[in-house]
Design goal:
Blueprint lengths: L1 E6 L12 E2 L3 H8 L6 E6 L7 H12 L3 E5 L5 H14 L4 E5 L1 H5 L12 E3 L4 H17 L5 H5 L5 E5 L2 E4 L27 E2 L2 E6 L2 E2 L10 H5 L4 E2 L2 H13 L4 E4 L8 H13 L6 E6 L1 H18 L1 E9 L3 H7 L6 E4 L2 E5 L1 H10 L3 E7 L7 H14 L2 E5 L8 H8 L25 H18 L1 H7 L1 H15 L5 H4 L5 H20 L1
Parallel strand pairs: 1-3, 1-4, 4-5, 5-6, 10-13, 13-14, 14-15, 15-18, 18-19
Antiparallel strand pairs: 2-9, 6-7, 7-8, 9-10, 11-12, 16-17
Length: about 500
């Protein structure tokens, strides 16, 4: 059969497509783990934000898919339903499958979309493979009445019936150390242009899962609290495959790679030994392990080629960390005792060895005041190189969501705004619009401050695209505002209008 896998075109504010165009690694893994006789094509629609409909029309004509899969995050839900409607119109016989965080955690939201036939909940490799076998068997047997019986036995699958979706039991989490999946199928990608600051970029996964219970996290709600690493040899094979496909930069997309510090250290050493350290690596990390082991770990990371570290600082105030359930992973410990926040020490280790910190913070928590928000923003100005500051967002089924709902703090139920940088909840002391304004006003200048470092690393890219990068960062700014004839609040209002117009354009 012909299979077309699509990721949605909607992007995060902190990842503007002029500078960052990441591939969807999950789709490549799905493509690599279905039966090899299927013809599969992957299209990351973030590469064609200005031509989504035209690209889909071409792909549906060229690929003639029997099955179309959609990878969906919560803020992309409306876009996914519009894409499904277009697929149904242009390719009526195709079976449409939705998967990813949103269908996994909010399957009820898809009941009303008659265009979507199946939902894949949780890890998708085995479920999608089994679904394709069932569809293929049904086509060959010419006994459509037998399909529901075949579908009922597939863990992790939801399938549409006359009464609505039937939801099978959850699929077990794959023990990657003993049952490694096949490598991603990067050859299936039919669009080109994945870049990070002008360098060809790919994603590699070395482990899945996390054992912490942060209240904002969708990962543990989707797969439980667990940690499953791939063997180091398999990770190196994946990196090698990404490099053969042209990657000059690699983002390690693990949920929490620093859960096992010794393994991470071995991975850094293995990258060096394999000669793969001429690639730029970006990774997500916890503050506590970097602080505690940074004297040994940071030099290894730099030697292996790590350049950017997304550090999950979350918040520097203890009360906010308690609400976020993130105190343990951000605490500096010594001889079994907690002796303070680990963030500054972790950042100093990374800076000392020439790495840049992408600072992940969350502001606008239920008890936040204007002063507590400004305290975190001042910390970001002083210590982080690139801000990735978000607002607490009531994603489906997370503990945070219930807390906000119980306290009546959710002010926006439109999930297309649930992108992390739109404040959709207020605190007990600050309105949502003001929370978002404070973040927006501070972040613009932090991003500009990092441009010299970006220029030193990628001068040609910055020279070619600096105007577009600044236009994104300062969206809503006019000559009048530059001359001080308009207030920041007026610029912010215009910026929000522009962003919502862009969202509406992309989603349709």
């Amino acid at each position: 059969m012909n299979v077309l896998l699509l990721s949605m075109p909607d992007s995060f504010e902190h990842m503007p497509t002029v500078a960052i165009r990441m591939p969807n690694g999950a789709l490549a893994s799905l493509a690599g783990n279905i039966d090899s006789h299927h013809h599969v094509a992957i299209a990351d629609l973030v590469l064609v934000q200005s031509a989504v409909r035209r690209t889909l029309e071409r792909l549906l004509h060229d690929e003639q898919p029997d099955v179309v899969g959609l990878s969906v995050m919560t803020f992309q839900r409306a876009t996914a339903m519009n894409v499904a409607r277009l697929v149904r119109t242009l390719r009526p016989a195709a079976r449409i499958v939705a998967g990813g965080y949103d269908p996994s955690l909010a399957p009820e939201a898809y009941e009303g979309s008659a265009d979507i036939d199946f939902l894949v909940r949780g890890e998708g490799e085995r479920t999608l493979c089994a679904l394709l076998r069932a569809i293929e068997t049904d086509r060959e047997s010419r006994q459509p009445d037998a399909e529901p019986g075949r579908l009922a036995g597939i863990p992790g699958l939801s399938y549409r019936t006359a009464q609505g979706f039937a939801h099978n039991t959850a699929a077990p989490v794959i023990p990657l150390a003993s049952e490694s999946l096949r490598l991603p199928n990067r050859d299936a990608r039919v669009l080109r242009g994945y870049t990070l600051l002008g360098r060809r970029v790919d994603v590699v996964e070395t482990s899945r899962g996390c054992t912490f219970d942060c209240s904002f996290c969708s990962i543990i709600e989707m797969r439980g609290r667990n940690f499953h690493p791939y063997p180091i040899e398999r990770v190196l094979a994946d990196i090698g495959d990404a490099r053969r496909h042209g990657a000059e930069a690699i983002f390690l997309v693990d949920d929490n790679i620093t859960l096992d510090v010794e393994r991470f250290a071995r991975l850094c050493e293995a990258i060096v030994d394999a000669g793969f350290n001429d690639t730029d690596y970006t990774v997500q990390a916890m503050t506590a392990p970097i602080a505690q082991h940074g004297a040994r770990l940071a030099p290894l990371m730099r030697k292996a080629g790590f350049r950017y570290v997304f550090l999950g600082i979350e918040n520097i105030l203890d009360d906010d960390l308690k609400f976020l359930r993130a105190r343990a992973k951000n605490s500096r410990r010594e001889k079994g005792r907690t002796i303070g926040n680990a963030s500054i020490e972790a950042i100093e280790h990374l800076h000392r060895h020439g790495m840049y910190v992408v600072g992940g913070l969350i502001v606008g928590n239920p008890d936040d005041t204007r002063d507590s928000i400004e305290t975190n923003l001042r910390f970001a100005r002083q210590y982080v190189d690139w801000p990735y500051i978000q607002h607490p967002t009531p994603y489906p089924r997370t503990p945070m969501t219930q807390d906000f709902r119980d306290r009546g703090l959710i002010v926006d139920e439109d999930v297309s705004h649930y992108d992390g940088t739109t404040a959709v909840v207020r605190s007990e002391h600050v309105q949502a619009d003001e929370i978002e304004f404070l973040r927006w006003r501070a972040e613009r200048w932090m991003k500009v401050r990092h441009m010299p470092a970006a220029f030193a690393h990628s001068p040609g890219f910055v020279l070619r695209h600096s105007v577009k990068m600044l236009a994104h960062t300062f969206a809503g700014t006019t000559l009048k505002s530059l001359l001080g004839l308009e207030s920041d609040q007026t610029v912010f209002t215009r910026y929000r209008q522009l962003r919502r117009l862009q969202r509406a354009y992309i989603s349709h």
